[in-house]
């Protein structure tokens, strides 16, 4: 039921614009009462962004499963492939969803807030890769935050290209731009 309500909500938002649709409109389009809709989603934003809820845990689990001898940056890049899976399966739908989120300030802010919540679990997963009892360091946290920013910049460029650019290539390029250099002096 939750997935069906989200699908209906997304379709209505695409047709009429996020700000032009009320909770009552969503309930009517789905054929349920407003209170039923609110039982599944506490807000319009949640109807769109609920898909992001489990992504952080999936990325962290994938990160923990990466080979222990793989450097953190490469492991983070490969772990983000779990996020890209939906973009591969349904590029048209994913582009429409990305545009809806990026073009709606409330959705964009809420998505970033959700991703901010992923950072501690990604940093902890990085720490656990080398030693399950290791505490998270500043370096782990910075790498996790940078990886998510690389994802967001790649998505921004992909969306701006109308999906014509390859998202995997964009994410690889973003990671390469921040790849550790051997002999850096500050």
Q: Largest sheet, described in full?
A: none
Unreliable parts: none
Q: CA-to-CA gap between the ends?
A: 55 Å
The radius of gyration computed from the alpha-carbon positions, rounded to a whole number of angstroms, is: 18 Å
Average pLDDT for all residues? 91
Helix content: over 70%
Shape: globular
Order of helices and strands: HHHHHHHHHHH
User: What would you call the structural class?
Assistant: mainly alpha
Number of strands: 0
Residue fraction in strands = under 5%
Q: How many helices does DSSP assign?
A: 11
Write the layout of secondary structure elements.
Layout lengths: L1 H15 L6 H8 L3 H7 L3 H6 L5 H11 L6 H8 L1 H9 L1 H13 L1 H26 L7 H23 L6 H11 L9
Structure description:
The chain is an all-alpha fold and about 190 residues long. Helix content is about 75%, strand content about 0%. The protein contains 11 helices and no strands. The model has no long low-confidence stretch (mean pLDDT about 90).
Structure characteristics:
186 residues, globular
In short:
With 186 residues, the protein is mostly helical. Helix content is 74%, strand content 0%.
């Amino acid at each position: 039921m939750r997935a069906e309500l989200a699908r209906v909500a997304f379709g209505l938002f695409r047709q009429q614009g996020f700000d032009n649709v009320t909770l009552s409109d969503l309930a009517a389009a789905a054929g349920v009462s407003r209170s039923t809709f609110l039982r599944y989603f506490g807000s319009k934003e949640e109807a769109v962004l609920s898909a992001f809820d489990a992504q952080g845990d999936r990325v962290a689990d994938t990160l923990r499963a990466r080979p222990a001898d793989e450097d953190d940056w490469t492991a983070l890049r490969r772990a983000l492939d779990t996020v890209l899976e939906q973009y591969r399966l349904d590029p048209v739908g994913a582009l429409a969803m990305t545009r809806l989120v990026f073009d709606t300030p409330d959705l964009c802010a809420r998505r970033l807030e959700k991703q901010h919540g992923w950072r501690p679990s990604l940093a902890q997963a990085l720490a656990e890769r080398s030693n399950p009892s290791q505490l998270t360091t500043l370096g782990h946290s910075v790498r996790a935050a940078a990886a998510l920013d690389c994802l967001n910049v790649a998505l921004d460029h992909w969306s701006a290209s109308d999906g014509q650019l390859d998202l995997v290539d964009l994410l690889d390029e973003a990671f390469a731009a921040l790849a550790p250099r051997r002999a850096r002096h500050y």
